[in-house]
Amino acid sequence: MKKLVSIQNGQAVTDSLTVAEVFGKRHDSVMRDIRNQKVKLVEAGMDKFIFHNFVEREYQSQQGNFYKKYELTEDAFALVAMSYVTPEAMKFKVEFLQEFKRIKAELQGKPKILTEREQLMASMKLSIEAAEEIPVIKKEVTDLKRVFSEELTLNHGQQQSLHHEIKKRVESLIGDYQECGFTKQRMYSEIHKNLRRAFSTPKYIFVKRKDYQEAIAWVKAWRPLL
């Protein structure tokens, strides 16, 4: 038997030629039935339904002549076949409707194949969305860099350099402050205590990397309070 339902542009459809062949009718009679249904739909204000469910096509006969035919969705077919009421016609209607159901189930299980226009539109949409997201991403990266820069503590080399400057400063000052009762141990305790307070850190190794140069300058200028 001729294939009752096919897929066109991702939609399950039959056509007037198939209906005519299966129901044993002349094609011009089926075309007349279709046009009669369209007239009734227009009178009912159902133009949108007609647009989505009845599609007029052109086909070439075996003799090379061109004629009109209609592609019909399941809803359009049901309206046209409504007047076909013989027992045999009822059997054919059931077969058509079952085939529509099968094809629709098959379509639902497949990813939709986009037309060229749909592919272009989807590509443009993705491009627009990407263009809109880029400034947001850039801002997020900038914010992350800022947080990273502000929160990052001294690396090992910087810790060693700062420790060396502290030791150097204590060694350079201890001779001047021993008369005031300062020992090296007290001097180290004072400079570390003052450094922690100045840079809001629990230990010199946790000084922020962005404050490294300032911390070095602070140590070089530090003097204990008498």
UniProtKB/TrEMBL annotation:
InterPro entries the record matches: ORF6C_dom, Phage_regulatory_Rha
Spans through the membrane: none
Stretches of the chain forming a coiled coil according to its record: none
Domain ORF6C: 119-224
Domain of life: Bacteria
Protein name: Phage regulatory, Rha family protein
